[in-house]
Amino acid sequence: MTDKVIIVTGGSRGIGAATAILAAKAGYAVVVNYAANAEAAAAVVAEIEATGGRAVAVAGDVGVEADVMAIFAAADRLGTLAVLVNNAGVVDLPSSVADMSEARLERMFRINVIGSFLCAREAINRMALSKGGKGGAIVNLTSAAAKLGGPGQFVDYAASKGAIDTFTVGLAKEVVGEGIRVTAVRPGIIETDIHVSGGTPDRVAEMTPNLPMKRPGTAEEVAKAILWLASPEASYSTGAILDVSGGRAILP
Ligand code: NAP
What we know:
This protein is of the alpha/beta class. The chain has a single domain, classed as Rossmann fold, CATH 3.40.50.720. The protein contains nine helices and seven strands. The protein starts with a strand and ends in an 8-residue tail after the last strand. It has helices spanning about 15-25, 40-50, 65-80, 100-125, 145-150, 155-175, 195, 205, 220-230; strands spanning about 1-10, 30-35, 55-60, 80-85, 135-140, 180-185, 240-245. The longest helix has 26 residues, at about 100-125. It has a seven-stranded parallel β-sheet with strand order 3-2-1-4-5-6-7, with helices on both faces. Bound molecules: NADP nicotinamide-adenine-dinucleotide phosphate. NADP nicotinamide-adenine-dinucleotide phosphate (NAP) binds near residues 111, 187, 189 and 194.
């Protein structure tokens, strides 16, 4: 049993996978949650174990309460939960709001928003000083889309990330006395599979000339920010949202 357990939701690919691997290097025992891609999750676990780290892959949809309970039960078997990274998130095919179905909206908000709430609830119940916990850190994943709005393409996704911004600030205030810091990372355009699953495989290439740094970010660059916010190095940061966007949605 270790007192340094981290849960990374959506840890099988992209930003989550980079975070899981970096977390293991920092000495965390890692719960690598995934939705469906068992092979990708197993590859992350294998990479961690190959360098002497400790990790378990746990299937589960963060939008389903029973699955969330199973993810946290897996963490309990490793030791004391120190960090939750609410990373799992989805986009959908480009659409105007006028054409969005109820099913699409329910999926978007269930995974991106309710999933983050359910995972935070379970983390708080383990970390809170008043519940016998040792404190901890929760890092949420928002998006530059929360500032930009995603018109004509994914206002639903952008709004779900706007909810995460507010969730981060509100929860930080709510649990500051419980030894729990709550922060968020706000990525810009990052090279991951999410653009393929959102039906825009060329999005990164098309956006690149318009990005302030003329390049997309990498999953590792976002992971480093997540791990810093999770670490004792960030001991005086709570309620903070750190832009990792190469200046997107910040610079003119
Ligand atoms: P990604 O490459 O598409 O990977 C998504 C990960 O989330 C996968 O591990 C996937 O598991 C998992 N996942 C999907 N739905 C899930 C669910 N219901 N329950 C549990 N896990 C689930 O995504 P990414 O680009 O790394 O994005 C990670 C986070 O950063 C998201 O919250 C996203 O909104 C945010 N973000 C990304 C960008 C960007 O440009 N990439 C920009 C801003 C914000 P499987 O492998 O099993 O499918």
